[in-house]
């Protein structure tokens, strides 16, 4: 598995797309910091970008990589290698290289602009951690979708739909249910609904760390009471971890049973 | 000897002098005398000033109340207190002990005082035509229930409050039933509750004050004909903090103020006929939040810069006028180059409307979904008041 991981990883590191991705974050980081020179404000803007783009890029990149390397995968399958290690190796290769691009791309400009001296370092590391989680989650999900669909168009469609659902439609349904049931106490409901979606969870985790959380008012206070504690942090990390692990397990299960 | 009663005399008080007690010297002194208090510590409280005197400290003598009660109580007209350092006012749960209390007096002047470790600072009760000038009041309030206000005016009128610095008290400056007061050049910061608190006080003017980092900002309630100019409201940040809270205020003028980094710049409730002119709203959560029943207000020439929400409304009805403001999130164009945008700006986002209706939805703050529906609402308004728009948004920021 490690060999395949290494292969996929180096293959991607050398590919143009990781550079583009890396350069994109690098420019974004520099431009943001150049425009408002304030690290903590830049973290907010960065959050907006991260919770939308990382899942999208992770999904598309994952599906694309899976379908593109299909011939190589078939070649590998003919070798005496464990099936699960082929697919897991590819998965970790893709997710790892994307995460690396993200961390380096954002980390370098922030370091140069004196992140270490500002007290935004914790918020920033939280940003990177959730970014890494989101990458792993969405690459995993897209691999799972790709392996379940022979048809490339269908696979792409499902993957984009999945992103659309978690990034946009879920919030729409969430909003509708909040408005429909506005007569009822909704704090626990909104807490649970937020925690279930990794994108919403990441957004709230970062928001609560920033000044802007004061805007959240009473509901925000309840959220802070939960997520601000040690337990809340552990629970949300556990949820993110769960979201990372189940697509991987699903991928392994599918890989072992699939007829190529 | 006969002349003694008619000529003003100067008494010198120091710890080792013939006159070592402020209280006794006041009793011995005649009206219009001057008391000079030399440097030293005077452990006295409940000092009654019942005749017109000038009491002046030299090099800030310390008057230590030892937490036993009120310190100065002025009941006569034309008293001047100048340059004393008053500490340790007694905290009481039944009496509003103050460092200096002025009761039913006129033409008083309280200046250059330093008050520390206090309960209430300067308390004017049914007094008028006086001056509170250049005092420094530094409290160490922790809880609201056992702390007092820095400068409190109760049933007083025609008082000038100028160049004071109030910090760490419950309400920095508190006015109740006090008319025709001018509040100028004061700094009120780090107070537990409000930096400035108005209740039932009409025809007051406040200019050039700075209110910073107060627990709940500034509250102006149930008052008429108030003028607020050139004030700065900064960093009143917290879940229940406002730059300024207006409740039942009519016919006021609010101009040239700066509201910077407050959770809510101005919260308006039941306030009519107010003119908001040339104010700057910078980096607030909500620049202006209109809660209800606000009619015939006009907002002209204000700068709205980088607020999370510019205006929030909770009804479909709009009777307020927005005209010629600069909005940093305005995306329109100006083809005829007259400096005024050709497309009207709609300052109310659908999201803020939704949040007003169901407060829990605020958890969707900064999500992609909200940005999308905000955009579509801006293109064709359905939920937000149709006539709530700035038809003449400025293209360039008002300098």
UniProtKB/TrEMBL annotation, chain A:
It comes from Flagellimonas okinawensis. Keywords: Membrane, Transmembrane, Transmembrane helix. This is ABC transporter permease. The keyword Cytoplasm does not apply. The keyword Transcription regulation does not apply. The chain crosses the membrane at residues 20-36, 42-67, 87-112, 124-147, 159-181, 231-249. Signal peptide: none annotated. It comes from the Bacteria.
């Amino acid at each position: 598995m490690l060999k395949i991981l290494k292969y996929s990883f180096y293959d991607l590191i050398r590919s143009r797309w990781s550079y583009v991705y890396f350069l994109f974050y690098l420019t974004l980081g520099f431009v943001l910091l150049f425009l408002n020179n304030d690290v903590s404000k830049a973290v907010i803007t960065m959050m907006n970008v991260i919770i939308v783009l990382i899942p999208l890029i992770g999904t598309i990149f994952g599906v694309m990589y899976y379908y593109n390397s299909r011939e190589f995968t078939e070649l590998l399958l003919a070798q005496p290698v464990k099936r699960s290690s082929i697919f897991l190796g590819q998965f970790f290769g893709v997710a790892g290289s994307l995460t690396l691009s993200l961390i380096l791309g954002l980390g370098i400009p922030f370091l140069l602009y004196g992140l270490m001296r500002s007290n935004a370092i914790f918020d920033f590391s939280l940003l990177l951690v959730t970014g890494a989680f989101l990458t792993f989650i969405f690459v995993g999900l897209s691999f799972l979708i790709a392996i379940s669909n022979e048809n490339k168009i269908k696979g792409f469609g499902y993957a984009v739909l999945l992103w659309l659902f978690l990034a946009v439609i879920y919030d729409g349904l969430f909003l509708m249910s909040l408005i429909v049931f506005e007569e009822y106490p909704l704090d626990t409901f909104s807490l649970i609904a937020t925690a279930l979606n990794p994108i919403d969870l990441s957004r709230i985790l970062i928001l609560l760390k920033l000044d802007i959380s004061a805007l959240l008012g009473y509901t925000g206070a309840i959220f802070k009471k939960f997520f601000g504690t040690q337990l809340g942090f552990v629970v949300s990390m556990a949820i993110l971890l769960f979201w990372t692990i189940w697509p991987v397990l699903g991928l392994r299960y599918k890989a072992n049973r699939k007829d190529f | 000897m006969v002349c003694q009663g008619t000529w003003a005399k100067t008494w010198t008080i120091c710890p080792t002098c013939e006159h070592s007690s402020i209280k006794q010297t006041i009793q011995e002194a005649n009206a219009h005398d001057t008391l000079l208090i030399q440097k030293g510590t005077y452990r006295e409280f409940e000092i009654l000033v019942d005749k017109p005197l000038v009491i002046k400290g030299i090099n800030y003598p310390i008057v230590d109340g030892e937490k036993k009660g009120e310190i100065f109580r002025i009941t006569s007209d034309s008293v001047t207190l100048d340059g004393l350092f008053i500490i340790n006012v007694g905290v009481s749960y039944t009496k509003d002990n103050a460092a200096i209390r002025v009761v039913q007096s006129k033409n008083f002047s309280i200046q250059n005082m330093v008050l520390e470790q206090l309960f209430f600072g300067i308390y004017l009760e049914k007094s008028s035509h006086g001056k509170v000038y250049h005092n420094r009041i530094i409290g160490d309030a922790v809880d609201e229930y056992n702390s007092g206000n820095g400068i409190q005016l109760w049933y007083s009128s025609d008082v000038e409050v100028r160049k004071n610095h109030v910090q760490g008290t419950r309400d920095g400056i508190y006015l109740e039933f006090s008319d025709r007061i001018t509040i100028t050049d004061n700094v009120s910061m780090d107070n537990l509750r409000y930096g400035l608190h108005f209740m039932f006080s009409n025809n007051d003017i406040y200019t050039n004050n700075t209110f910073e980092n107060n627990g709940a900002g500034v509250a102006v309630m149930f008052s008429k004909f108030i003028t607020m100019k050139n004030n700065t409201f900064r960093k009143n940040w917290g879940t229940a903090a406002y730059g300024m809270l207006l409740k039942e205020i009519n016919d006021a003028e609010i101009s040239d103020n700066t509201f910077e980094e407050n959770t809510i710049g101005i919260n308006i409730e039941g306030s009519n006929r107010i003119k908001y002119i040339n104010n700057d709203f910078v980096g607030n959560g909500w620049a202006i939040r209109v809660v209800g029943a606000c009619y015939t207000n006009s907002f002209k020439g204000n700068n709205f810069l980088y607020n999370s929400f510019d205006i929030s409304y909770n009804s479909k009805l709009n009777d307020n006028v927005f005209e010629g403001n600069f909005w940093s999130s305005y995306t329109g164009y100006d083809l005829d180059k007259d400096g005024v945008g050709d497309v009207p700006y709609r300052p109310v986002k659908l999201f803020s409307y939704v949040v007003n209706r169901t407060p829990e939805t605020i958890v969707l703050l900064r999500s992609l979904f909200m940005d999308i529906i905000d955009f579509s609402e801006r293109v064709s308004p359905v939920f937000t008041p149709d006539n709530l728009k700035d038809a003449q948004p400025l293209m360039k920021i008002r300098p």
